[in-house]
Amino acid sequence: MNLHSFLLMRHELVLIAIMLIVLIAELATKDNRKSIIAPLALVLFGIHTVIGFLPMESGTLFGGMFNATPINNIMKNILNIGVLIILFQTQKTFDSELNRGKVSEYFIVLFSTLIGMFYMISAGDFLMFYIGLEIATIPLAALAAFNRHENKSAEAGIKLLLSSTLSSGILLYGLSMLYAANGSLFFTDLMHGTYTITSLHTLTLIFFFAGMAFKISLVPFHLWAADVYEGAPVNVTSYLSVISKGSAVFIFTVVLYTVFKNYAETWQPMMYIIAIFTMLVGNLFALRQNNLKRFLAFSSIAQAGFLLLGIIAGSAVGMATVIYYVLVYVFSNLAAFGVVSMIESHTGKTTISDLNGFYRTNPKLSLALMLALFSLAGIPPVAGFFGKFFLFTAVASVNTTPYHILLLIALLNTIISLYYYLMPVKAMFINKNESPIAYFKSDVFAKIGLSISLTGMVVVGFVSSIYEEILKFCFGL
Amino acid sequence: MDFTYTLAIILLPLVTFLTIGLLDKSMPNKLAGVLGTASIGTSFLLACYTAYQYFFVYGMVDGVYQKIIAYHITWLKFTDTLHIDLGVILDPISVMMLLVVTTVSLMVHIYSNGYMHGERGFNKFFSFLSLFSFSMLGLVVATNLFQMYIFWELVGVSSFLLIGYYYEKPSAVAASKKAFITTRFADLGFLIGILLLSWYTGTFDFVQLTQTSAIGTLESPAIATMGGISFMGLSVISWALILIFMGGAGKSAMFPLHIWLPDAMEGPTPVSALIHAATMVVAGVFLVARLFPIYAIAAPDALTVVMWVGAFSSLFAAIIACTQYDIKRVLAFSTMSQIGYMMLALGVSKYGGENGLGFTASMFHLTTHAMFKALLFLGAGSIIHAVHSNSMLDMGGLRKYMPITFITFGIAWLAICGFPGLSGFFSKDEILVAAMQNNTPVFIIAVVVAGLTAFYMSRLFFSVFFGKETKYHHTPHESPKTMTIPLMVLAFFAIFAGYIPFSKFVTSDGAAFATHFHWNVAIPVTLIAFIGMGIAYVLYFKESTIPTKVTKALKGVYTTIYNKFYIDEIYLFVTKKILFNIVARSIAWFDRHVIDATMNGFATVTNYVSNSIKGLQSGQVQKYGLVFLMGALTFALIFIYLVTK
Description:
The complex is a heterodimer of chains A (about 475) and B (about 650).
Chain A: H1 10-28, H2 37-52, E1 59-61, E2 66-68, H3 70-90, H4 103-122, H5 126-144, H6 151-182, H7 187-192, H8 199-216, H9 223-231, H10 234-258, H11 264-286, H12 292-313, H13 316-347, H14 358-361, H15 363-377, H16 383-396, H17 401-429, H18 444-462, H19 465-472
Antiparallel strand pairs in A: 1-2
Helix pairs in contact in A: 1-2, 1-4, 2-3, 3-10, 3-13, 3-18, 4-5, 4-10, 5-6, 5-10, 6-8, 6-9, 8-10, 9-10, 9-12, 10-12, 10-13, 11-12, 11-17, 12-13, 12-16, 12-17, 13-15, 13-16, 13-18, 13-19, 15-17, 16-18
Chain B: H1 6-23, H2 29-58, E1 60-61, E2 64-65, E3 68-77, E4 83-90, H3 92-115, H4 122-140, H5 145-163, H6 170-201, H7 206-210, H8 221-228, E5 230-231, E6 234-235, H9 236-251, H10 260-263, H11 269-278, H12 283-290, H13 292-298, H14 300-321, H15 327-348, H16 357-387, H17 403-417, H18 423-438, H19 440-465, H20 481-496, H21 502-505, H22 519-540, H23 546-553, H24 555-562, H25 567-612, H26 621-643
Antiparallel strand pairs in B: 1-2, 3-4, 5-6
Helix pairs in contact in B: 1-2, 1-4, 2-3, 2-4, 3-4, 3-11, 3-16, 3-20, 4-5, 5-6, 6-9, 9-12, 9-14, 11-15, 11-16, 13-14, 14-15, 14-19, 15-16, 15-18, 15-19, 16-17, 16-18, 16-20, 17-19, 17-20, 18-19, 18-22, 19-22
């Protein structure tokens, strides 16, 4: 291992550098100049995102603990784009008196969670994986409690911390049993080891699964999500529901497809049950919500259920559809969150019924939100349709009856989801309101963030070569 | 030679549409107009360059114009055989259409700067025009049936948007709906046809579909086998092509799917000129021409259908046009009649060499017709702009007030009547020759239509520019330069487009052949046209009472024709009385009491379940932990004790 091979950790190293620069900027600027830190972080992260797209070698580091592969690189790039959009949406938050002193704190914590996710994605060993997971989780609690003057935010932070402690405990317990059963934590050893699957192995899988299901908020490990999503600041909520969830889905897919390859006959039925429950419960809860953030939280649980469909398929196509779906989901959900956060920061309104008559006063934002919801619901021609379409194709291509039933259930759930995704649209366009939310002018950064998401939503749908490109690097069971 | 730049011809209007459409009100009207015009202008220049490169430099190999795929991507890949591609194909007809569409579109853009001046929604109008141009250009360069279908629908949508431009007027809304529904209904046939054809041939691709070998049979073996499978007396391929033609007939307003075209005149006049005269309505002709090798070689039955539908529509519309008073409606029926001409020309044509004269004639007429009909519509727009009425009864003696409109309109009138030396004369002559050589009844119909055309166009021309002295509220005045310049440019084409040696460039098999002028057809037909013009001169040049006497004498026949043979009423009867009342009502009952009830049941259950599980979300984190643990343990129990053992 030489210095050059450190470049394999390009994403992580650049991020650490950015963290340090932000920290130094915080120390070096006077109090009245602090407003430059947020844009600085944004610009630096923009550069980081661009760097991520440069061609990169693949290889391993630290004796196989760290993997740099093209598919990992794609996953990280997708997360980068998402975080970039969130950073655009966050800029205005720091105008307020309360947050002005905590600017660098926000970015450093955010970036460190991202580094954790990157290490987790690139992990070639469960130790590395676990450390990444913790780096990603613990600071998240701090982020959720970012508006600490608000009870709800503080509550969200503590709830996230407590729940994630529990889930980490179980996950770690699972990993320790894995070590006990196999004598190694390296992915490659576990993959190629020859052994018969005992109850211990099954238990390992289930505990690992529970820990990941917590991160992805799958039923019944999802209960923390709604409270935390509602209490946390909007941008943290979008970070949690998009980036954190996306990264967990990525590594989950990779681990299931490699390490737990031999267990497929156990985890496929397990995921099958969980997928059905997750879609159903997420949808049924989303149906009843009036708070926009809670509504998006439950809808994102249902979306995670859909994602499982691709994982269950167990083919290279399945993996590609999962990654593609996350990409689409990043754009659509962040667009929805973008509008919601604009509304919240300008008017303080947070419920669906507040949206009544919104189209008359803010037609452009209404259209943007409509497109985002259409994409989440999977209505053509926006990307969400193609995402769902590919997912369903992946499931349908496993040509057996249980999979066809699963597909049918998924389709029914799409219909349920269509109903509640159209509720805000109906509120904005059809419902009458004497005093709708007055017209407001949103800040430039938020507008840019929203435009990126909307463009992404349209472009990703139409440029099919993106999907082909992802598929090239994917692998099946 | 790399033709990738042709992509810009199509994409420029799209970019313009997005720019004007998204900025909408924040963009000054003038800028939107200039931007729209400049972008289509650039497309026009590029199209000219492409045409030069294609026809004179790179297109011909061994004496045959090649099909060049200038750009190609696989857009959606489902399986190895089923994939939807997008691309740009260059062959004589697509290059010709690129030229026609961009020329007329450019003229209409320039004209609209003046015509639409001060209208509300000026920017919206230009963004829609750009959307239409994009869709139409995408349609003509489609490399496969599916791409064509996509753009076909986009064209339909833009047409819908533009007909309904004055959306505050109920009649405009009704007309736009009528146009959209009628063409969509026709497109159902088109879609089924596409699916049939591609199911048997395994491809959407035009190049593969229409590949022919030297002996003039289609190379695709699938098409050969399709010929063998028959259904209700016709081979499957004939059915597929008849259904595809149904789509074409809908867009091209062929009988009996023509009912939307007269109503579509509710749209602004430049729109009528661009969409409902020169470009979109000939999409059906283009479609048949695109698939012509299959029609001609593998499915002559389908081609016969095309021929008779074209011939009948052409006669039918010409008769109706003689009785209408709305200047734009006369032109609309005339368009329908002329498109019928193009269809019948395709119908009588054979594949290859001089036998493909009908094909060439049809494309020739498409081009010349686009020029003079666009000119007629734009002229009519200029007149309407000045008189503020569509009715010919409100017009008369306008030659004194609007000299430029008078002269240019006059040129277009002579061109469509087939006056010797003007463009219409040459293209019509070729069609008649092709008809004479192949099918006598159709030839006779075509001659009759030529006479009728001369009559009703002269009736229009005389009663608008000569005829009775009409008192106007405001003295009519000539239109501004932005409107008269396009008129003059189009007048130039209306005169000289006929001198293009079309059979050198556009032929059924790509190989050039020489056409001969047939005096034995040209002289009698020209005489017949003169007779038509003469009758109109007698009746309408000066104010006279003869027309009223004639209409009185033929009252029953006249009202029937004036009411367009009551076709609309038949449609209304079938839809309202039979479909809505009998079929739709019983289905509605079933829908309400069975399907809705089931759905409501689902909704109630969903609601109930969702209500009863909401206790799970208690807000207490210790409970969450408990559920989490129980969940994990339940799974452990299930999978360790139930599944594995």
